[in-house]
# Entry
Amino acid sequence: MRMAICDDDEQELSHLSKLISEYQISRKISVDCRFFHNSIDFLCDIKGGEYELVFLNVLMPEISGMQAAQELREFDKNVKIIFISSSPEFALESYRVGAYHYLLKPIDADLLFSLLDTVRSELLMQEEQGLVLKSREGVIRVSFAGIEYVEVINKTVSFHLANGITYEITAALTDFEGKLLARPEFLKTHRSYLVNLNYVQSVGSDCIATKNGHSIPVSRQRRNQVQDAYMHFWVQAGKNSSEADAQTAIVSKNPERPTGPWRILLVDDDPAECTFWADILRGHGCMVMVAENGREALKLVMDEPCDCVLLDVMMPDEDGFSICERLRKLVHAPVIFLSSLTESDKQLEGFAVGGIDYITKDTPAELFWAKVATRIKLARSDRTQLRYGPLLLDLTGRRALIYEKELLLTPIEFDILWCLSEHAEHIFKPEEIFSMIWGSQHWDDGQMVQIHMSRLRRKLDKAWGEHHFIETVWGQGYRFVPPFD
# Structure
């Protein structure tokens, strides 16, 4: 694991250094960790992709941790950022810049170790599911399943994705082919080409035709090998499909998530608490399902898809920790504990059983919502894209493209476009947009919203003048209008 820690407090840096050393010894692993005494030195070191995890002190002279995080995001969209502070007052702002977590000083060793274990587990899973690439646009992550084929020309490796996006990397094909060829679906057809057999339509004597209409060369020396590998792959796929039939009944009860507002399952036996938190979620446009116990929760997730589970700890018959372990076997949605228990050992237990976060019930409403929204977006970003005619929102790389040409959007402009597009035709009042983007900051009569909306619309219209994606509804607000097919 590659990490950086930036803090102007020498005593705190020394404390963290000691904890990291203890963590390496206890886990018998090696951690590549660099320490920085101020944000300027840290940012000068950043080129993108150096670190998988970054700890930033919130309050530092000249450039604060929040400002450093915003600069970091311009280089690296995937790095996990953990803020450290002596006060919880900046927690809400931290999640606005994509924080992974927020730790209060003095940092507890057990809580830190549990958090690092979770990060390591997620990084290992991401490595198994895809590649991290350093392209001209910054550091991006692509899933193996989304790669249609890879080609190298001179010293440029091009990753052609099934959705039409191409990422160009200055590297050698040998830098990636080991990981790709270790997977059964990838095959080298030519010294300059690798193809994902899932996207192959047919195999000829000198080329492969993909389902998206691309032609991949097959060298003479590899002709027989390619044909045999193609046949073997689909024979094996047929066997796997037959074996999976036995699971069809279970899978059919856990359908794909439909488009539209986020669906959240709230599990709590206290009616007053359920009403309080459900009202906050519905106020942000979510659909809320409520269960009073584990039995009801398990039945609901079998029958209905959900984007997130909010789970109380103390409930009769079965506590939230044991319910979480059972839920994790049925759903891929993030499970967040929402509890009045604030003890660190309870939070550690929550992480140990698979919870992605632990929110105490004394958390302010806006910070609660920021945490939930961030966790849902992070969980969905590895596999979700939104397409509206020629407009593609790449949620993994946080990019917007029209006819495969990228729009140069700021992080705030992208968040606004993402939010509006997911609720197409809904009219958003300026106050709603301000609350979603800037949280509990002082309302400025809509000036910030107007400025960012004007810039965003100008960029969209310049890229494709045939259609106005964002429309002003006089006297009411703004709405996203998908183009007609």
